[in-house]
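Record type: monomer structure entry
Structure origin: computed from sequence
Chain ID: A
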Amino acid sequence: MAGVKLLKLLANLGYGSRKSVMTLFRDGAVTDAQGEVMYADDTWEPEMQLLVDGEPMDPPPGLSLMLYKPTGYTCSSKDIGRLIYDLLPPRYKLRSPALSSVGRLDKDTSGLLLMTDDGQLLHRIVAPKKHLPKVYQVTLAEDLRGDEAELFAAGTLVLEGETTPLKPAELIVHGPRSAELTLTEGRYHQVRRMFAATGNHVTALHRSRIGGLDLQGLEPGQWRTLGSADIEQLFGE
C-alpha cells in the first residue's frame, strides 16, 4: 500500500465513500502527527502517522487481530443478529481488502478467533501442511465412557456423512464431563460431531489456543492487533 493516495487509502479503510472522504480533506480533518493538514492526493508511506478528526488513523491493510469471541455472536458480516464485527470499530466491517475471520467458531462456541485482511497470512494459517494445533475446552452432557482418548488418537474415526477418517487428536480428561481436545484440522462442527459419535453431547465449547497463541488476558468481547512477534509465536518460530 506504500505510495497509495490518501484519498484511496481512507476510503479503503472504511472512512466512507471517496466523496465523503474528500469532505474530510476539505475540512482539514486529516493531519499528520504534528498537526499539518494533509491533502487527498498526498501519498501514504508506512512511516507516516496520520490523524483523522484528531484520532489515530485505523491500521492500514495488513491488519491482523485476535478476538475473544463470546457465545451468541456469529462469524459473519451479513447474518442477522449479533455479529463478530459488532465487537470491532464499525469501519472495520467496511475495509477493503476485507477483514475476515480465519476459520469460524459457531454461535455457541467462545474463545480465540483470528482475523486478518492479509490473504497470504490467512492461507498460511489454514494450510493443511502447517498442522497448527487448535485447543478446545469441552463440557459434556454425559460422563465420558473412558475410551474416547484412544478412539480420537487412533486416526480411524469417520464422522457421520463423511468417508475420510479424522486425523489423530489428543484428548486430556479433566473430569467426568470435562476435557481438553487438541485438533490439527478443522472440519465443520468437528468437536461436537466427534463427541456425538461417542453418544455424547457438547454443552459448552471454548477455543483456548491456536498454535502458540492464547487469549493472553483478554476478556470476552475484547480484541487486540497482532504484531510480527505474535505471528512468529503463532507459528512457533
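Annotation 1: The longest strand covers residues 202-210.
Annotation 2: The chain is about 20% helix and 25% strand.
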